């Protein structure tokens, strides 16, 4: 099929590239000229494992191209995916101005039937607004459909997730729209759930909020474990063996960051309130998440006593491994708090250093964990990269001023760390 994807962020770019890979002809559009210029040189502006290779392949076989021109996208394709940003506003609501803009641009350039599919994460009732915007901006009476097709891919495994989704959700209001979307996703041979548009929109917010709740729940349990000497890892294992609970997303630690969970949680809260329902559970989820960072800093303080003048080595800056994304990374608040208390910070991240430099100043960025450890008063682990999991602990111990490791991601075994002579503090055990 001939498809256009408007917006080349994590979701839009991965979706466009993967649609090309499964046989469609795809035009990816973005109004960021520099980004499109880079993509035209087969370069991916984000770090996402595997993406660049299939991008190159599909550009070469002429199934994938890039443009800054929405008009071209509308002319060339019957199906247009909107995948632009919906950043958070101060009150927690999503800024939908990019969606509105794109919808009106599409309408102004339409010359025949189009299926306009919203892939951006949006509050419920956005589909209705998109439909209205298109109607208002159409020059003549042209048939069209609006659909919702939320995306569930994770950063760091975006390509794998796109080819292997647990489900594809399509929210439609016509059989024609359903048939087109089924055809697009047919090669994936996956479960397709067809709903009305509003339900599809809510599925996305509800799923992310539920996963965030699971994380905050286990973090709260971790805090109880810590107070009584239980081990949250074992508790999570025991809970996860119950199929109704499941073992995923029960890793206690610094809580969730990234551009999706925090913003989607806020947006879901906002839309719930707007609809007249106080979803207080989600407020608690947010509070627990914030508190985890505080607990972590407190552990560092307990281990070092006075923070002022101490050198603290940070391992991992990105909000999770396999991404260079620093948005809402716990490392930002933690490092800023430590700096405010007078600590000197050295840090290592395998991929996020350049992006970290934009948000974290006065940090000595190092090339590897050993440079970080050299003469540091303690090490703090913030992201569970393989490069951190596989450090040579004996070498690290020799380099550190004091053998202290505070681990926000529970990557080492406390008994083994004690045997090696470390003062080792982790989360909930
Ligand atoms: C998330 C959703 O998983 C995805 O479906 C949606 O499309 C976008 O938002 P992403 O933000 O890429 O994806 O990362 P994810 O792997 O879900 O992790 C989110 C955060 O939760 C990370 O900060 C991670 O460290 C944290 N997390 C995850 C935990 O603290 N504990 C866990 O058990 C799992």
Helix tally equals 18
Total discrete domains: 2
Strand fraction:
5-15%
Structural class: alpha/beta
CATH class of the largest domain: Alpha Beta
Strand elements, count: 14
User: What is the assigned CATH homologous superfamily of the largest domain?
Assistant: NAD(P)-binding Rossmann-like Domain
The low-pLDDT segments are: none
CATH architecture of the largest domain: 3-Layer(aba) Sandwich
The neighbouring-strand order within the major sheet is: 3-2-1-4-5-6
What would you call the shape? Answer: elongated
What is the distance, rounded to the nearest whole angstrom, between the alpha carbons of the first and last residues?
53 Å
Q: What's the average pLDDT?
A: 97
Largest β-sheet summary = 6 strands, parallel
Bound molecules: uridine-5'-diphosphate-xylopyranose
User: Gyration radius, to the nearest Å?
Assistant: 23 Å
Proportion in helices: 40-55%
CATH topology of the largest domain: Rossmann fold
Please tell me about this protein's structure.
- The chain is an alpha/beta fold.
- The chain folds into 2 domains: 2-195, Rossmann fold (3-Layer(aba) Sandwich); 196-429, 3-Layer(aba) Sandwich (Rossmann fold).
- Helices cover 46% and strands 14% of the residues.
- It has helices at residues 10-21, 33-40, 51-60, 70-76, 97-109, 126-137, 158-163, 175-185, 197-228, 232-240, 261-274, 280-304, 330-340, 353-359, 369-373, 386-389, 393-399, 414-419, and strands at residues 2-6, 25-29, 64-67, 79-82, 114-118, 144-148, 168-171, 192-195, 311-315, 344-348, 363-365, 378-381, 404-407, 423-425.
- The strands form 3 sheets. A 6-stranded parallel β-sheet has the order 3-2-1-4-5-6, sandwiched between helices. Strands 11-10-9-12-13-14 form a 6-stranded parallel β-sheet. A two-stranded parallel sheet has the order 7-8.
- Helix 14 (353-359) links the parallel strand 10 (344-348) and strand 11 (363-365).
- Helix 9 (197-228) packs across helix 10 and helix 12 (280-304) packs across helix 13 (330-340).
- The longest helix has 32 residues, at 197-228.
- The mean pLDDT is 97.
- It binds uridine-5'-diphosphate-xylopyranose (UDX).
- The site of uridine-5'-diphosphate-xylopyranose has 20 residues, from helix 9.
